[in-house]
Hints:
It is a single chain. By secondary structure, this protein is mainly alpha-helical. It has one domain (9-72). It contains 4 helices and no strands. It has helices at residues 9-19, 23-30, 34-42, 65-72. The two termini are 27 Å apart.
Amino acid sequence: xxxxxxxxxxxxxxxxxxxxxxxxxxxxxxxxxxxxxxxxxxxxxxxxxxxxxxxxxxxxxxxxxxxxxxxxxxxxxxxx
Length: 80
């Protein structure tokens, strides 16, 4: 289930969009609906908020939840 978009996310989302991250990767990073990212990208939402250029999450590709779980559990991941 997607979480609601929060104000603190918007500058980071704009910075990630400016960096060239895929909208779907951004939505997955924040666990939000990809439609909210699309609205920010097209200027339908939060037009007055500036993009953050600092403290951005690492660029994609991001690890999947399964890969993170394997790391936490100290388990080897299956070969891709």
